[in-house]
Amino acid sequence: MRNKIFLACAIVLVVCVSWAVCCDEGVCVSIVSKCLLIKSCDCDMTSLKNCTCCKDCQLCLSKLYTECCSCVGLCPKPDPDDDLQDGSTIEDLHDPIPELFNVLTEQEDIEKRWTTFILPVHFDVLAHKSNHGILDLSKDKRQEVTKDTYGADLNCTVAFMSQCYSLRKCKESCKSMGAARYRWFHEQGCCQCIGDTCISYGLNSPKCLQCPPQEDEAENQLEEVNKLIENTVDEEEDLDEEFDEDEDELDEEEEEEEEDRGINELKSVG
Questions:
Q1: Is residue 184 within 8 Å of residue 89, measured between CB atoms?
Q2: What confidence score (pLDDT) does residue 79 get?
Q3: Which residues 6+ apart lie within 8 Å of 28 measured at CB?
Q4: pLDDT score of 83
Q5: Residues of the chain under the 70 pLDDT cut
Q6: d(Cα 61, Cα 34) in Å, to the nearest integer?
């Protein structure tokens, strides 16, 4: 009996070492070890179409299924190259104003609020839809795009906001420019406003000038914060000194008043 227990523990240890690279040990080691010991996840999962223990395994993993299913081969292993910077949110905007968007983007913005990119549309690659981790919030179904719809020569104009924006501010800013849709990159907070002539949702990579902030800008912001803190401390120290001086003056006045009272009492007795 002891030999069987030892053998089972050894198997679990080997399996744990094999999946430690792709799994969170701190979260999954306990639940996965348990599921392997009770043989809830002990079956051939190479073909998930005919997985005899998939149901029992997912029930055993319970609330930790999402975090630990890859540890037992029940779902694909996490992709180390799958970074948040590849993820973005897109949405079609209601009532775009193409004329306004064209006026704002036809020349370089002198205040550097946004940067304009103009790119040709290649109809031969429209059928290819690469996965960029996009979350589509669009509600409207867009019409099928063909050469006959827009013409053979078509340019797509997009504008990248210079500063980092929240999702809400990105949407509002693109609406104010008259854009037809927007794309917001999760990792950087980079906002891309897209014109109505664009077939797809603009460029797949963020190109905001100051987002994320450069190291120099971050250092300058940190220096400004430190100066603000120092000024606040100095002001507090000055207030403390003034308060102490006021207290000293009050003490002196009280002492003088007591002396005057003593002198007056002596005179009245005499």
A1: yes
A2: 67
A3: 19, 64, 67, 68, 71
A4: 53
A5: 1-22, 48, 79-86, 122-134, 138-153, 214-226, 228-229, 232-240, 242-250, 259-270
A6: 9
Q: Encoding tokens for residue 94?
A: 């209601």
Cβ neighbours, 10 Å, residue 27? 13
Contact 123, 149 (CB under 8 A): no
Q: How far apart are CA 177 and CA 95, in angstroms?
A: 12
And the tokens for 145? 């795009």
Query: Hey, what amino acid is at 33?
Result: S
Whether the full predicted model's pTM is greater than 0.70, yes or no, is no
**DSSP string covering the chain:** -HHHHHHHHHHHHHHHHHHTTTS-HHHHHHHHHHHHHTTTT-S--S-GGG-TTHHHHHHHHGGGHHHHGGGGTSSPPP-TT--GGG-EEEEEPSS--HHHHHHHHSS--TT-SEEEEEEE--GGGTT------EEE---SPPPPP-HHHH-SS-EEEEEEESS---HHHHHHHHHHHT-SEEEEETTT--EEEE-TT-SS-S-SS---TTSSPPHHHHHHHHHHHHHHHHHHHHHHHHHHHHHHHHHHHHHHHHHHHHHHHHHHHHHHH-
Residue indicated by tokens 């019409």: 143
Report the pLDDT value the prediction gives residue 10, as an integer from 0 to 100.
45
| Beta carbons of 186 and 89 less than 8 angstroms apart | yes
Q: How far apart are CA 166 and CA 212, in angstroms?
A: 12
Give bridge partners of residue 161 from the DSSP assignment: 114
